[in-house]
Amino acid sequence: MVFFETFCTMIKENMKIFKKVLESKMKIRFHDCDPFNHLNNSRYIDYMVTARGDQLLDHYGLDIYRLARTKGIGWVSAQTQISYLVPAFLMEEVTIQTQLLYYSEKSLLFEASMWEQDKSVLKSVMWTKLVHFQLATQKSHLHGIELMQLFAEVVNPLPEPVDFETRVKHLKQPK
């Protein structure tokens, strides 16, 4: 209920439309790099998921960690597709954009893209399917009405259905 009250307050006070594509910057750290000073492949996922969690809190007031602690609900990864295009280097500041592409009563599909700081070069693209999960029962769980309302406000579906590889090719094209 706290989330819903926060969500309603944000709408009433700001009377603004939520951004659909969220963006933040992160610096590539030494402990996340391989011996060549490239961001380790598995850490791309960590950076993008961390950025998404921070963005949800900053832009929508959705604290996924508090939901897990107080309500025993969260999301688990069901599938991740990632394409590594250009290395991210030690101490480089990157821009990470995320967006919700699809939602249902039990699942979400979000996209994350990592860019050079000025967004001139695409470094990586990821699609992750998440399943809503009840920690007590260890089973999938229906999204509540408050979450479904939020998802309806922020979903940013692609103009036409495409597979992951086609989407990566489209994003790589110069703008």
Offer a quick outline of the entry:
By secondary structure, the chain is α+β, with helices and mostly antiparallel strands. The protein has helices spanning 2-14, 41-60, 64-71, 145-154, 164-172; strands at 22-27, 73-84, 93-103, 107-116, 122-134, 139-140.
What are the SSEs and their pairings?
Layout: H1 2-14, E1 22-27, H2 41-60, H3 64-71, E2 73-84, E3 93-103, E4 107-116, E5 122-134, E6 139-140, H4 145-154, H5 164-172
Antiparallel strand pairs: 1-3, 2-5, 3-4, 4-5, 5-6
Which properties best describe this structure?
alpha+beta; globular; single chain
Structure description:
This protein is of the alpha+beta class and 175 residues long. The protein has a single domain, classed as Hotdog Thioesterase (Thiol Ester Dehydrase, Chain A, Roll), CATH 3.10.129.10. The protein contains five helices and six strands.
